Amino acid sequence: MKQSYTTPPETDSTTPRSEYVEKVVQIDRVTRTVKGGRRMRFRTLVVVGDKNGKVGYGIGKASEIATAVQKAVTIAKRRMITVSIVNGTIPHEIMYHDGSSRIFMKPARPGTSVVAGGSVRAVIDAVGIKDILTKIIGTSNKAANVRATIQALSTLHNK
């Protein structure tokens, strides 16, 4: 017997599309012990940006992953910052430390692309920087590194 396949319906352009890029950096399963047993919840770290100089981060906690991500996105959109970008890179070199997290960022020539690790790469991609050199020194805590990266980007100024 021959099966016939139908093409899926076209998505109409009337559905609202978010202008922000959402990147889930980390999902943690957190358990706590109560009288009846263990309760599981999820903690998510999300970076939101418009790829045009605005970026923010949020941490959401809920009993389901989708709800935790949505909470984190709402928090991230509330605490967006504007970053000064010059010719696809940052205006000057910066070394920023927040607690035990140290972030080094250096402007790069066009064509270098993004040289960054893990959590810093998520922030750099979301903000829309095309060429940059970065290094994480100190802790490997993703939440601390994201926070330090965003604070470092907020301290940049045009020369």
Give an account of the 3D structure:
The chain has 159 residues and is an alpha+beta fold. The chain folds into 2 domains: 21-81, Double Stranded RNA Binding Domain, CATH 3.30.160.20; 83-154, 2-Layer Sandwich (Ribosomal Protein S5, domain 2), CATH 3.30.230.10. The protein is 23% helix and 37% strand. The protein has helices at 65-78, 118-127, 142-154; strands at 21-34, 37-49, 54-62, 81-82, 94-98, 101-107, 114-115, 132-138. The strands form 2 sheets. The protein has a 4-stranded antiparallel β-sheet with strand order 1-2-3-4. It has a 4-stranded mixed β-sheet with strand order 5-6-8-7. Helix 2 (118-127) runs parallel beside helix 3. The longest helix has 14 residues, at 65-78. It is elongated, with a radius of gyration of 19 Å. The model has no long low-confidence stretch (mean pLDDT 89). One of its GO terms (biological process) is translation. This is Small ribosomal subunit protein uS5.
Helix content: 10-25%
Q: Do you know the CATH architecture of the largest domain?
A: 2-Layer Sandwich
The assigned structural class equals alpha+beta
Spatial strand sequence of the major β-sheet: 1-2-3-4
Described by strand count, sense and barrel closure, the largest sheet is: 4 strands, antiparallel
What CATH calls the topology of the largest domain is: Ribosomal Protein S5, domain 2
Beta-strand level of the residues, as a percent range? 35-45%
